Amino acid sequence: MSFRSKLAVATGSVVLSALALTGCSAGAQPAVPAPGQVTGNQASPGVGGAAGESSEAAENSGEATGTGESGEVRESGQVINDKPGEIDIRAGQHGSEERVVFDLSTLPELSGGIKLMKHELNEQAPVWGGSGEPVEGMEGKSFLHVYLEAADAARTTAGPESFGLPTAKSAVVNDNSHGTAEMTVGLDAGVDYEVLVEGEKVVINMSRGPLGR
């Protein structure tokens, strides 16, 4: 074999050895994920924390329901009394106005609906109908008394409830007998107000300034 042939064989062996080493090294490398592919425990944008926060925000944006302080800040929309057999008292603030609602819609023995008789604002604190005992726990400097025709055989009363509002401080259904009912709202100041009957709910809107109706 000539010197040139030996050199060619040696060169070919070196090249083959280099290719073999390269192949082994390349086989040990991890696969590179395609753009946008998620591997292992990585979180992709829009999943996990961000989605959880959005879900929580959606829940917190729902309309609050309940009685007393747990039912504050209510905007437009129907609120359902989920306390069968009870009068639900709730309140909220709507801009410069405050609202107190007495919901009689789930009283099983209420017949013939309700009808507004009269209302008056004075400094006379409420008393329990029949006994004439003062209603303990009522807050306010003046009191708005609302009288209804309401044929409730169970003679259901409710409250008093306290509210963390600037003007409306408390409310009670302090009498419900002989076909009539009295409900009272304790106020921290004089107000302009209106009393509405909507189905079996009494809605009282009030403001320290003019209501603008």
What's the average pLDDT? 73
DSSP helical segment count: 2
Share of helix, binned:
10-25%
Oligomer: single chain
Provide the gyration radius in Å.
37 Å
Low-confidence stretches: 1-79
Q: Give the terminus-to-terminus CA distance.
A: 116 Å
What is the global morphology? globular
Q: How many beta-strand runs?
A: 9
Largest sheet: 5 strands, antiparallel
Given helix and strand content, the structural type is alpha+beta
Polypeptide structure, described:
The chain has helices at 3-27, 49-60, and strands at residues 88-94, 97-103, 110-122, 142-152, 158-162, 168-177, 180-187, 192-198, 201-207. It is α+β, with helices and mostly antiparallel strands. The strands form two sheets. A five-stranded antiparallel sheet has the order 3-4-7-6-5, with no helix packed on it. Strands 1-2-9-8 form a four-stranded antiparallel sheet, with no helix packed on it. The N and C termini lie far apart (116 Å).
What key attributes describe this structure?
35% strand; 213 residues; 5-stranded antiparallel beta sheet; alpha+beta; 9 strands; 2 helices; 4-stranded antiparallel beta sheet
